[in-house]
Fold these 2 entries.
Entry 1:
Amino acid sequence: MASPTLLTPSSKFTPLLPPFKPKPASAAIPSHQPPQEPILRRQFLCLSTTTATATALSLTSLLAVTPAFAASDEEYVKETEDVINKVRSTINMDKNDPNVAAAVADLRQTSNSWVAKYRREKALLGRASFRDIYSALNAVSGHYISFGPTAPLPAKRKARILEEMDTAEKALLRGR
């Protein structure tokens, strides 16, 4: 509880800052300029939106953004064959091989870049080779992410992945 000496009716409030006294309106505006109407919030927002839109439109026309397209069909075939060979060599490695972890890391990097490059290509999404490779890469990556880079693939999963690789390779040779 507070002591009675601290709160007395005779104590005065002393402000820390002097009171603010606004200048009269006639003194605020110089006599040589006519008084201006204040800009309303609605007018300000409309003007700023118009300016921002015009600036954005002029910048987009200057920059001329073009979508990133994957390379030619020959490059897709070559890179897909490289991925197929890398998957086969990695999953057929002996589990006691000391280079398994490095090979799995290299395979993950290669598969991530392949998927990132070709996943958004509408022309490739319907291809049988793309579908099979994507499915196999998903299975391989999921296994190594879940069980670690040195865990061997189960026989059923390995057989399914190799079958998808064979199917994808045949589809690539047929142009599909």
Entry 2:
Amino acid sequence: MLQRWLGLLTIQALKAAGASGVLVVELSEERRNLARKIFADVILNPAEVDAVQEIKRLTNDLGVEVSFDAAGVEPTLNANFKKVSILKGNQQNG
């Protein structure tokens, strides 16, 4: 049962910590609506858009700095790797 709400709890924790640009990719309409109520900055429905491509567009091809996966299934884990910015890694190494 916690897994169902883990993503929403993560959003709340990020916002409470002062994070900006919190982007949510959620298939469930119910959880998308809840994400709006707890002030996620961008909410994507992966049934309507290619989330990876949309995130690239929104971030000028930089990707995100941090990605959390609350579903714990292989397709979402693989998509997370594609969303995370490689720019940060390059800055830290050079």
